[in-house]
Amino acid sequence: MEWSDSGIVLSARRHGETSSLVMLLTKQHGRHAGLVRGGQGRRARGLYQAGNRVSAVWRARLEEHLGNYVCELVHAAAAGLLDDALRLAALSSACSVVEAALPERHPYTNIYGEFLSLAEDIENGAAWTESYARFELTLLAELGFGLDLSACAVSGETTDLIYVSPRSGRAVSAEAGTQWRKKLLPLPAFLLRPEPAEPPPAEELRAALNLTGWFLSGHVFAGAKLPPARERFLERLALRG
Amino acid sequence: MAGNDIERLINYLSKLPGLGPRSARRAALHMLKRREALMVPLLKALESAAENIKPCATCGNLDTDDPCAICANPERDGSLICVVEEVADLWALERTHSYKGRYHILGGLLSALDGVGPEDLNIAGLITRAGAPEVTEIILAMSATVDGQTTAHFVTDRLKGQDVSITRLAHGVPVGGELDYLDDGTLSAALKARRPL
């Protein structure tokens, strides 16, 4: 078995003294692990940093084997972010969430494309925090737990949507939600915009990440805690204010 | 082939870093052939090390004394604390002979994959040390990896409010490094960290 694909490094774990167990998010083969011989070496370690884009060749005798990766660096995203605590935390968080959320060896080309554009936004974009929140929404949708923010679940109204039902994941208008507002999750206005524009206010961003975090934790992670890297990203966002 | 004792010796030796079963067998045989000259002194050294070497309560360095030789040395500059991940990093810095301050060993890096959280690292000890009036600078000497720098940023946050300047090691072109052979990441980090001549 052999295939070539483009991928993003999600994690690299030490395996033995010199090798690494590398997890990639590949375009055609989804989240896929492989052994990298010499992955702990001086030259290879920089390549297998979370967020880096690589061109990968995977080889194994049988498809169900772990197999070996040989990768070539396409873009070192992590290196450019080492000095920026918040963006570095965002990239680590995105990698951890994707690694924990996606099943292995199932292609998610849309998530791959979204992840690529998120990584580019984190590196260079002004509204990257909004892109991050939108990426988690896409992740939920691709995994079958998409939120329906198009109309009010109660009245069908398409305006004045300010809540989301924690059960159904559907938007609720201000008027229809008055009675249950303590139980509903706040819906930040920027998520209703079609495209990222300018960086959202910190409060709205927190609300958006609480919203996606609620559904990721409840549905994708089946009540388990979200990855620590995501928690650290939220802590850092809170520090920024 | 070999007796139980030899097999046991080979088994333990093969658990050492850099030694597989084959090299462990060679090492065992080498020691057995040089029993008096090598094996017995090695045994004594191992016993003594196991009994006497302990982590320094101040910095986490390994030494026979507590505080360790570095912490107890009055010649060392007490205003500088260099934070490193492991004892091996301290040894690496000591080999340079260019740093005369003190150290603090964190005992690892934050790593979601390996389940290492802030509570597993010796950060509380660092904060206490940073509060001492003689300390003026904390140098963060973590590796230039995502985990290393995530830990460095985390430590920086925890040290906010202390009256110390926080610096970190530079990232860039190594001595003897030719640009043509450097990876993209190192080159872009070096470009970002450029300084006027």
What does it look like?
Chain A contains eight helices and eight strands; from the N terminus they run βββαββααααββαβαα. Chain A has 241 residues and is an alpha+beta fold. Chain A folds into two domains: 2-76, OB fold (Dihydrolipoamide Acetyltransferase, E2P) (Beta Barrel); 85-149 and 187-240, Recombination protein O, C-terminal domain (de novo design (two linked rop proteins)), CATH 1.20.1440. In chain A, α3 runs parallel beside α5, α3 (85-101) runs antiparallel to α8 and α4 packs antiparallel against α5. Chain A is elongated, with a radius of gyration of 19 Å. With 197 residues, chain B is an alpha/beta fold. Chain B has two domains: 4-52, Helicase, Ruva Protein, domain 3 (Orthogonal Bundle); 62-168, Dna Topoisomerase Vi A Subunit, Chain: A, domain 2 (3-Layer(aba) Sandwich). Helix content of chain B is 44%, strand content 13%. In chain B, the strands form two sheets. In chain B, strands 4-3-5-6 form a four-stranded parallel beta sheet. Chain B has a two-stranded antiparallel sheet with strand order 1-2. In chain B, α1 (4-13) crosses α2 (21-33). The model of chain B has no long low-confidence stretch (mean pLDDT 93).
Strand order of the largest sheet of chain B: 4-3-5-6
The whole-angstrom Rg of chain A is 19 Å
CATH fold topology of the largest domain in chain A: de novo design (two linked rop proteins)
Average pLDDT of chain B: 93
Q: What is the structure about, briefly put?
A:
The complex is a heterodimer of chains A (241) and B (197). Chain A has 241 residues and is α+β, with helices and mostly antiparallel strands. Helices cover 39% and strands 22% of the residues of chain A.
Which descriptors apply to this entry?
heterodimer; A: 241 residues; alpha+beta; OB fold (Dihydrolipoamide Acetyltransferase, E2P); de novo design (two linked rop proteins); 2 domains; five-stranded antiparallel sheet; three-stranded antiparallel sheet; 39% helix; B: 197 residues; alpha/beta; Helicase, Ruva Protein, domain 3; Dna Topoisomerase Vi A Subunit, Chain: A, domain 2; four-stranded parallel sheet; two-stranded antiparallel sheet; 8 helices; globular
